[in-house]
## 1
Amino acid sequence: MAQLDVQQKLAILADAAKYDASCSSSGTSKRNSRDGKGIGSTDGGMGICHAYAPDGRCISLLKILLTNSCIFDCHFCINRKSSNVRRARFTAPEVVNLTLAFYRRNYIEGLFLSSGIIGSSNYTMEQIVEVARSLREDHHFRGYIHLKTIPDADPELVHQAGLYADRVSINVELPTASGLKRLAPEKSEGRIETAMKEMKTAIIDTADAKKRYKSAPRFAPAGQSTQMIVGADAATDGDIVTKASGLYDRFGLHRVYYSAFSPIPDASAILPLKRPPLMREHRLYQSDWLMRFYDYTPADVVAATDQATGMLPLDIDPKLAWALKFRGSFPVDVNRSPREMLLRVPGLGVKAVSNILAARRWRRLSLADVGRLTQSIAKVRPFLIADDWRPLALSDRADLRPVIAPKKEQLELFA
Ligand code: SF4
């Protein structure tokens, strides 16, 4: 490997990290250094990589790899052993110094650190842990730290990562075991899931201990997350949603991230030539949202997919797709129906439903009242009964979909 200075390494290793989608920082505990001790905080500031939390909060992270060299050869990965890319490697002190320097310049609020595997899984994990240890113990860094952990590494090392990090993640990589076997043959679904299970147990045990003893150590207070690549194998949206739901249930994941596969230079011949539409990734995030906040089951989301292809429609969101398929569940009476049915109405969000439930305790609501709580009353009308509104035949129209689907817009050439 040619001798590179830190700036050159940064250019290579920040670029290599851009393929990782799972750097949202939601849910961490608040820490700061206002007491004059330590450095950093988990709130405020501006930075390099912007990650958005589900609550809309935006935080900035230094998002880098420790190295883009790797002894594995996962077909979809630009950093795989056989890839013809320029390689670089930071030492642990270099990452520590960069993080502190970027923090002091107010560029970042935290660090997202991942890595290719160098030497062995244990050696790589030791280096990752050493970065976090040094930041926390030598420099009293109180900013956010998200560490990617390596499932094959010694469980004790993975555990140490959780003691220093706010969030840890272990990538499942692909939605199906067969896809993983084909595209990442050196990885094992069993080892990945075992590591996730151990992480879940440690997170729960520490949270319990923290309730009883203030002095109990922190352990990944922002939980664990994972990432799935979409469109690199034959998995359908139904497969992906079912897998994600299982991961939430079994391992208590904070988030599952979906990353649309993007063709890479010198790509392996077994990969598709084209990337999936970015809208597919967006629809999967919407489905994920429906399961986490709108009480949809995975089976509900699967029911919204096209029966022949198993894919969610790209032109309408999954909630509207479900409502159009199950018209018998509508219209829903805004003045009488329970929360779970109001949440099924396309165009009504969680906040709008809460406002409706609060307002209807005092008076009956008209369509105009509902209109003030939603962005698109046209989308709501076929599915709702209000004090002065009944959709009558509108709900049953055979051509309802084109009537309420968002209009396709011609992009402006010079916008
Ligand atoms: S182990 Fe990670 S870095 Fe290495 S080739 Fe596979 S996905 Fe890429």
## 2
Amino acid sequence: MHADSVPLDARPAVGAGQAVCSAGELRPGQMLPVLADGRDVVVIRTPDGGLHGLEDRCLHCGRRLSHGRLHVAVTATDVGRYEEEQGRFVIKCSGDGYEYDVATGTTLFDSARSVTRVAVREADGAIFVGAPAA
Ligand code: FES
């Protein structure tokens, strides 16, 4: 579940209030890098259908989160015993493995460190980045 197949020069570049894609184009488990109003954003459709937006830059060395992996969050209940956290999803950076909660942008290892969340919404069969136009 990553966006390696979307070259950076092929990503949608949109201005405020413009749709980045149709709602059906971003399927559960997919991520879409976009240049929205001059800002790098990754739009994320989690496997449960949730829609999220984050700044598309890792806090560590700046790799694009859209080139990472989207997966279900996992907790360890004992040595070798892992359980999936229902409804919580994580992007793992393709670099050195920083992991971010997609709903909050917060790193899993330090709750004080987060990438910026970006407002995304689905309306009229399309996906938009940023606040609704006035
Ligand atoms: S650039 Fe993301 S973990 Fe290193």
